[in-house]
Design goal:
This protein is an alpha+beta fold. It has 2 domains: 2-101, no CATH class; 125-274, 3-Layer(aba) Sandwich (YojJ-like (1). It has 12 helices and 7 strands. The chain has helices at residues 2-16, 23-44, 48-67, 71-91, 93-105, 117-122, 127-142, 158-161, 173-180, 219-230, 259-274, 285-297; strands spanning 147-151, 165-170, 190-194, 197-203, 234-238, 245-249, 252-257. It has a 7-stranded mixed beta sheet, sandwiched between helices. α7 packs parallel to α9. The chain is elongated and about 75 Å long. The N and C termini lie far apart (60 Å).
Length: 298
């Protein structure tokens, strides 16, 4: 078979010319391997993973067609290849845009090099803010006042802030209750919180297209899950129909939370934001954990 002969020739040539491989070639191979791995890790958390599985099926079919010398199918594949690349870019436009935004948000310099300590301290998510949020959600839950509160973490929510009305006020339970009170100008939409301040109200959020969400959930819950799918924010939702409290984080919805469970969830965010330890990349988590365990033992 022709394809088998090509593979054999490639392997034979590799062994003949392997002496010409230098340090630069090895470095290039490692860089490409790292990029491929990083792209696969990113694809696994997006719709691109399903697209990749479909492409794998198509590639297997084309390999079979090439082995069986189906010339018509191979001619069609060669002529449609450029067109398919454009289709993939169009279909995956939201995911590609999000990936480029993530790359732009990476801090390649030490985070404290140019940071303003006073501003950094002001933007911290404090225990007082947690108490105010919990109290406000508890009060709104009792009277079934619908609420949608988005808490910013590392990823900026300024694009969503622009869709609302600027507030720029300190987080208090009275202010939150007044914002979401029925028939008030700011009650419709989401409130965005950065640090200890409410930045904007009546903000529009992207709706989730997750088919796994219950059909009984309304727009408020779908918006809360939607923004958590595209950012690292935590969203608090108070149902207007039932008064039950839910949270959305990393695309997952937790429903029917008690006041204590909500407080614990918010305290986890507080602990993450006040940590002084440097961030470790996701792919090195296992190695970092092992190293820390060894240090604790010693």
């Amino acid at each position: 078979m022709r394809w088998f002969e090509r593979v054999t020739d490639y392997v034979r040539n590799f062994y003949i010319y392997r002496g010409t491989i230098g340090a630069g070639d090895i470095l290039e191979i490692l860089i490409i391997a790292f990029l491929v791995y990083y792209i696969l890790v990113w694809m696994k958390t997006t719709r691109a993973w399903q697209l990749l599985k479909g492409l794998i099926v198509i590639c297997i079919f084309l390999l079979i067609a090439a082995a069986m010398e189906m010339s018509t199918i191979m001619w069609l594949a060669q002529n449609l290849l450029g067109f398919m690349a454009i289709v993939i870019v169009v279909v995956m436009q939201p995911e590609l845009r999000h990936a480029l935004e993530e790359l732009g948000k990476k801090n390649f310099l030490p985070s404290g090099l140019f940071a303003d300590p006073a501003k950094k301290e002001q933007e911290k998510f404090s225990e007082k803010t947690i108490n105010e949020l919990v109290k406000a959600c508890h009060e709104m839950s009792k009277v079934k006042t619908g609420a949608l509160i988005v808490i910013e973490k590392q990823e900026s929510l300024r694009d969503y802030e622009r869709t609302g009305i600027e507030v720029d006020g300190i987080v208090t339970n009275q202010l939150l209750i007044n914002i979401f009170e029925h028939n008030t100008p700011l009650h419709d939409g989401a409130v965005i919180i950065r640090g200890n301040r409410i930045t904007s109200a009546t903000c529009y959020l992207p709706l989730s297209d997750n088919l796994g969400l219950s059909k009984e959930l309304g727009t408020r819950h779908r918006a809360g899950v939607g923004v958590s799918e595209v950012t690292d924010s935590l969203t608090i939702i108070v149902s207007e129909e039932t008064g039950k409290i839910s949270t959305a984080y990393e695309g997952k919805l937790q429903r029917n939370l008690s006041v204590d469970q909500l407080r614990l969830k918010l305290q986890q965010i507080l602990n993450q934001q006040t940590e002084e330890k440097p961030k470790v990349r996701h792919i090195w988590k296992g190695r970092s954990k092992t190293k820390n365990e060894k240090e604790d033992i010693s």
